[in-house]
């Protein structure tokens, strides 16, 4: 039995070996076939390369023939070149002679240029002298005009002071305490008021609202009766009713502030809380229309509402038809009114008027002084801007 088992095991092992050998034989047969294919391909490639080699030899022979012809041409060209060399030498001699003549001409031109420079220098010196004389004459004329303007301004100030004196003599009402102000009628209380005619240099005579303490009102908002959403020309010339709401005009403000230092006072009223606030600046000055009425100076701030106007200092005036602010869209759009905008929304004293002090249209800006009111849903209901010579 044991022998039979061993025989079976041996037979099985042999069968497995035969199977493996058959597999290896198949693999070897396959590899031999692949090698045969590669040999056939290599043979074909060798044949192709032999054909290319034959063609190359043929091309080389052709190129050798061409080279022989080129050598002949070169020899012929060399012979012609010798002849050209002689001609070139002759041309070089001519060029040398021309160069000598050119140097002589250059020397003459250089002398002429020196003479021209001396002449130009003298003309430039004379032109500069004439310009200096014209400039001095212009400055002298300007100083004369400034002196005339100062005289006219002083005469206007004398007339204004006379008017104020008469107003003081005819009105003995005592100044009331500011805490008792009624926001609906604040402009008629606390200060003696008058209307007088003011004459400014190069500007027609106009009526203005003055206060007994020497202040001149240049802007007032109190009841929404006047439209402040206006073009450049209206803000330049002024608009409104001095008995109610008005803006005096940028030309007039410039003329009043240019010859003498002025202080600025702004009074604000909030109907929703009954609060009154103020801002004061001690050196207020704006430029001319040529300077786009730039807010040149404010001076030092004192007050109770915060120094938010400082962000607009050095800014030029903007209206809905002429933008000079620093924002991507015109800050005067949407009824915001003209102002010295830097960025929109911080100080909009010419903005839309909301009677009860509540912004009922979210798409529009009201009257704001954000360092004081802070809430865009609330709109100030009273503004008075005044200036006074220091």
TrEMBL record:
> Where would one find coiled-coil regions in this protein?
4-171
Q: This chain belongs to which protein, by name?
A: Fibrinogen-like protein 1
For this protein, the record's PROSITE patterns field holds: FIBRINOGEN_C_2 (PS51406)
Q: SMART domains per the record?
A: FBG
Q: Provide this UniProt record's keywords sorted from A to Z.
A: Coiled coil
Top-level taxon of the source organism? Eukaryota
**One Pfam family of this chain:** Fibrinogen_C
